[in-house]
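Q: I have 244 residues here and want to know how they pack in 3D. Can you give me a structure?
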Amino acid sequence: MLWRRTMSLRVAILEDNNEDFENACLFISEWSQERGINTAIIRFTDDQILKTFTEDKFDILFADIDLDHTGSGFIICRELRELGYHNSLVFLTNNRDYALKGYDVSAAGYILKPLSHDSLSGVMKRAIDTQLGNFYYINDRSHITQIAFDDIVCIAKSAHYIHICTTTGQTYNERTSLSGVLAKLPSQFVQCHKSSIINIRHVEHIRGNNAYMSNGRSLLIGRSYLSSVRKCISGAKKNHPASA
């Protein structure tokens, strides 16, 4: 599946302090705009969030632990987990000691107040990564292109760009490094040359130092990469044996 969309992110903030809420909104909005992501922010100040909750309504929830100076934020989040909220939960707090309580509700982390752009960036990225699922994304500021991993046959590099070849015959270009791309890919991808990556699920066969792909293309396997390519393909066959 290949398609283009503007990514959307749903963020809930459980915070009764107006200044802290406004700061969080500012930093989240700036972070989203820099990446071309449409982010909807909704605010809750008390347990009203429980009354309006539907399963996984939010991609990420920022919650003030010490709501009303009573610690009720933690209690509300625990009840949300019991109701079926499975997405990212991050606590906001003035007190480091509260951070330990986060383990009880599988919190992704905590951020000490006052909030900052840098402190929010990490947790926002983790929320995005969770949303990505089985896709590779190219962000060119104006929009995001989503490509299913299984639709990627191979990736080649020339100059400052990488070229993603897909099963439809369409090629997508991105200005980035090959190592940067490889770090975002699952184990079905392996580097076969200093300038190329292959999807082992699309390897028809290997002959000599060449990998013959499902799209009819052949790619040279560098001498130093041949062993790891063969090992990767062999491991895939053991984990997914052919049907009798």
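Q: Anything worth noting?
A: The first helix runs from residue 18 to 34. Confidence is low (pLDDT under 50) at residues 1-5.
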